[in-house]
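Write out structure tokens for Peptidyl-tRNA hydrolase.
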Amino acid sequence: MTHATKLIVGLGNPGAEYENTRHNAGWWLLEAIMRQYNVRLAPESKFQGLAAKARTADGDIWFLQPMMYMNRSGASINALAQFYKINSHDILVLHDELDIPVGTAKLKLGGSTGGHNGLKDTQAKLGTDQFWRLRIGIDHPRNSSIPLQPVVDYVLKPPKQSERSAIEQAMDKAQHILPDWLDGRFEKAMRVLHQK
């Protein structure tokens, strides 16, 4: 049985100065997932981003990296989703998450944006909060060695090497649950990802 076309989006900011910052964790995970499918992103001007498609036995998967700043990325996501008639329930947005610890990843459908500008814009442009989010924990600056550091400074700086390693371990775990998400086994995907 073939499934509906899926869209997996990595949120981040374009430009070399942002490449290794915490806010680009969604891009890091997207790139890791695409290596599994052996596809490469290419410019797609009508979607204002870089996109790639993997054909699988169960249906097509689109990968998207919006090439505008985080707070405007919803336009890119909506353009591709509208063009290929992809339902919001078949969209998975990969993003950094301040409210969960480094080394943790969580999966959820809908709900609050938690103040994340990329999610806010995606929700506004799609006209719904009913899309999946794979949240990569980067922790909050209040839990760091510089607790008074403004959030914007914190997310736009690279993590320490130990934090980057922990983030990569969480991303590795996230990649393992992707087949379950693609097959609609959402409860199983969440159970496996969320277990300690």
